[in-house]
Amino acid sequence: MSFRSLTPQFSVSPQLSAADVDQAADAGFKAIVCARPDGEKAGQPPAGDIARAAHDRGLAFVAIPVPSGSTPDEAAVRAMRAALDTMPGPVLAYCQGGGRAARLWALAQAGTMPADAILAAGRSAGIDLSPLEPRLATAGQAAPATGTKPGRHFNVVIAGGGAAGLATAASILRRRSGISVAIIEPSATHFYQPGWTLVGGGVFTAEQTKRPEEGLIPSGATWVRQAVAGFRPDRHEVALDDGATLSYDVLVVATGLTLDWRAIPGLEETLGRNGVTSNYRYDLAPYTWKLVRGLARGTALFTQPPMPIKCAGAPQKAMYLACDAWRRAGALKDMTVAFDTATPALFGVPAFVPPLMAYIERYGIELTLRSRLVAVDGDRRMATFERTTTEGTTRIERGFDMLHAVPPQVAPAVVATSPLAGADGFVAVDPATLRHTGFADVFALGDVAGTSNAKTAAAVRKQAPVVAVNVLATLDGKAPVATYDGYGACPLTVERGRIVLAEFGYGGKLEPTLPPWLLRGTQPTRLAWFLKERVMPPLYWHAMLRGHELMVAPRTNPGA
């Protein structure tokens, strides 16, 4: 069963069975809403059966039937609003296909959530809610619906409690502890995503890469455990998923980006089975290592989508570690390994291409540039690629025993549909000061910022102090004084025990932190592996997220 998320707290699905209720419970849902009348179709499980299955798993359940082909009436909308206000979340609602459940949610949110944010949530889930737009707009102009929560004001509101949001909050509060800072983050768990490459390579366990969010919130900050429902920069407000609003003196957008799994037909349905995996998800990285250990012969395909993506080297890292494991096991000679990347070069910074090509040749990898994964048939174990050459574009199918897929990556819908977005959907900011190009009291950093730097944790580590200094300058009525040079780092794990440490800034300028003689320039070293495995995780947890700015003091221009 596939669940489609409109917000982190609400998803929809087609008709559920009792077995699907078990899957929903395992996925973390706490409540189920049935939006389908009984008896619509022969063999349809009655709501009572689903209610009993939900009760057996400790899930709340309510039936709010909406006849097929109709728009939910006011009674159904009120019942849905009451359910959302009282039931524990996350909530899963179902009907025949999910559409009625989504419309019921949308109308229940009207008046408490911006209409454009509701429509964007529908689009992100592949559901067209635009026929409801007049009704949503009218509700938005009316008095707030029952259950709307009062707004609160903070000096600084940070949208996102990932690496960028936490590091920025910590850096701000270390400089000025007396100001009010809110961190909007719905997730109770924080993940060290750079570690997932090593999980997929059998070096880390998945559990080593996660910690409770609560323990990472800086002292003095307020954790608002909600999702952002909309940005209203002209009113200095952020709308929340529960209907409340937060107002601010300065806003920092650090929501990260969205992995668009649905952009590749067939991919999402087969993830975690049929040999299809990805180190870009916490739950799948262990499956990568399981596949690598289990293969002694066959075909392994690795893919990379068009830019921008998180850590542009990560798709290759998975491949190199897999090939090294097969080499050590004596199986590489019986493996066919291919890397299809949509990019025009193996790596975006030319200085690092030669050492990487040496490993491509060493492992016998078939490299195809300008080749994009466009479909996956998991049952047939077949991948479809669209390849572009000087002669035109063609499509080919390739069978596989293992497929490591990386999805296209886009700005979150709540950002892309907001006044903060640039033409590419990401937050439009000055690349040096990271201040919004149109709203002087808004900053952005991390994966959601519309800058050309590599989207890595190392980039965030450099950006957070810059944003912290400039936020405080803005609160003081001054212009930004700190600048970011585009620094990013990508530890390219070319084999177990050796890494090519790629550090560079805007324009591909090399920006090594340590002396080149120590890391042998662009060559793979054991020291770089030691830094990746032993130094970077504690540096992340205990320094970066705590506001300790080791070797990343921001460049300032007091005369700005």
UniProtKB/TrEMBL annotation:
Query: Which InterPro entries does the annotation name?
Result: BLH_phosphatase-like (IPR005939), FAD/NAD-bd_sf (IPR036188), FAD/NAD-binding_dom (IPR023753), Prot-tyrosine_phosphatase-like (IPR029021), Sulphide_quinone_reductase (IPR015904)
Identify the cofactor(s).
FAD
Matching NCBIfam families, A to Z? Answer: TIGR01244 family sulfur transferase (TIGR01244)
List UniProt keywords, sorted A-Z: FAD, Flavoprotein, Oxidoreductase, Quinone, Transit peptide
Which residue ranges does the record assign to the FAD/NAD(P)-binding domain?
A: 154-457
Residues annotated as domain Beta-lactamase hydrolase-like protein phosphatase-like: 3-111
Q: Does the keyword Glycoprotein apply?
A: no
Which protein is depicted?
A: TIGR01244 family phosphatase
Q: Which domain of life is it from?
A: Bacteria
